[in-house]
Design a protein that fits this description.
412 residues; mainly alpha; 79% helix; globular
């Protein structure tokens, strides 16, 4: 992977501007096709009940991605690299293996989502759509070889398509303010709601992009002086994260709001993304269905390229080795194509892939907390005690929710 360095001779304004972009790449992972499946399933089955989960997960995402970006800013290295240097070898191998499984689950959701979108828009069979999604994502990633800024701009453009698509659908559906107000109060309704909440969390706080964000930020600060001179850039990093992740949070909330307003209120079945598309067309009109399908297509293309990029960062960081992009693309694409050829329900595969991602969060988040609290590593950018406590509480909540889910599944 190539990167454009931020030379010390640049003006302060230009150095601050170079820090914008990584969070928009990270934001794509937070609105990938897995979010479509879990958010629409949650909204159609439980109305606004789980809106608070989306809000909470997005706040967690802001904190987590800020820590990841700060790690890259302070050290000029990414999280997997620092894990390899600071942790025992057996721990590093374990972290790498689970991170690779997370990468496969991520690509599964993204390729399937792109395939479904191509089928909805053009009638392309799902296996063919999955192959096209993989090829387009690979082409997008090729922009990164010409400098990370081109890749970031292309991804930001696709994020804009997703944002506009769902803002349009909210405008078509209308807003139920009392229902939304009720959805911000924490509550569950049985094991199924907990399963979907876990899926929402896995689709919102994405393990692979925790690794990736530190790498993207470190690429922006190569060539700068040691960590002390980087503290003034932290404000720009914070703004980047708040804006990028804020957009992703609004899109996720919009998905659930549309599902609750259109499907839950009408008692219509939305067991699959195809049914969501059909239902939007029947109730809101063809323009709403088109906006949904275009947003899904943009999500599948962009998030698949981001997922492959993250896979490269994971392997290079943990093992000090890398695979050719073509080979990695083939490896991560294969499971998705097998599922599409086998006729497994794409929507079910999407939801369960997000549950797998949720179980991977602690393995990325715990090392991140341990490293960002170390002043000998982070210098002036080390976490304050309150930040470490808050991030630890987030990790504990995720682990607790996953253990509760296991109990529900085993003993229900």
């Amino acid at each position: 992977m190539t990167a454009t360095t931020s030379a010390p001779g640049r003006s302060p304004t230009r150095r601050h501007m170079t820090m914008y972009g990584p969070a928009f790449v990270a934001a794509i992972a937070y609105v990938d096709p897995g979010n479509f499946a879990t958010n629409f399933a949650a909204g159609s089955q439980f109305g606004y009940l789980l809106l608070w989960v989306i809000i909470s997960a997005n706040l967690m995402a802001v904190l987590v991605q800020l820590l990841s970006a700060k790690l890259g800013l302070a050290t000029g290295c990414d999280l997997p690299q620092l894990c390899r240097r600071r942790f025992p070898r057996p721990v590093v191998w374990g972290l790498w293996l689970q991170a690779e499984l997370v990468a496969v689950a991520t690509d599964l959701a993204e390729v399937i989502g792109g395939a479904i979108a191509l089928n909805l828009l053009f009638g392309i069979p799902l296996p063919g759509g999955g192959l096209i999604t993989g090829i387009v994502a690979f082409a997008l990633l090729g922009l990164e070889t010409r400098g990370h800024r081109r890749f970031e701009l292309a991804v930001a453009g696709l994020l804009l398509v997703i944002v506009l698509g769902f803002f349009a659908d909210v405008a078509f559906a209308g807003v139920d303010m009392p229902g939304i107000a009720g959805g911000v109060v924490p509550d569950f309704s049985g094991a199924r709601s907990v399963l979907l909440a876990t899926g929402i969390l896995g689709a919102t706080v994405m393990p692979h992009v925790i690794y990736l964000h530190s790498s993207l930020t470190s690429a922006h600060v190569r060539g700068l002086d040691p960590a002390g001179s980087r503290k003034p850039l932290l404000r720009s990093v914070r703004r980047d994260v708040l804006f990028g992740l804020g957009l992703a949070g609004l899109v996720n909330a919009a998905m659930l709001i549309v599902a609750a307003k259109v499907f839950h209120a009408s008692d219509l079945s939305t067991e699959s993304i195809d049914e969501v598309h059909t239902g939007l067309g029947e109730i809101l009109g063809a323009h709403a269905a088109l906006a949904f399908a275009l947003a899904l297509l943009a999500s599948g293309f962009a998030s698949s390229s981001v997922g492959t990029y993250a896979g490269q960062v994971i392997m290079a960081g943990f093992l000090g080795r890398s695979l050719p992009l073509t080979l990695r693309r083939a490896i991560t694409l294969t499971p998705a194509l097998i599922i599409l050829w086998a006729g497994v329900s794409p929507t079910d595969a999407l939801v369960w892939s997000q549950v797998v991602l949720s179980f991977g969060i602690p393995f990325a988040l715990v090392p991140l907390i341990l490293l960002t609290r170390r002043r000998d590593l982070m210098g002036p950018l080390a976490n304050r005690p309150v930040t470490t406590v808050t991030a630890s509480a987030v990790a504990a909540l995720v682990i607790g929710l996953n253990l509760y889910l296991i109990g529900q599944v085993i003993f229900a």
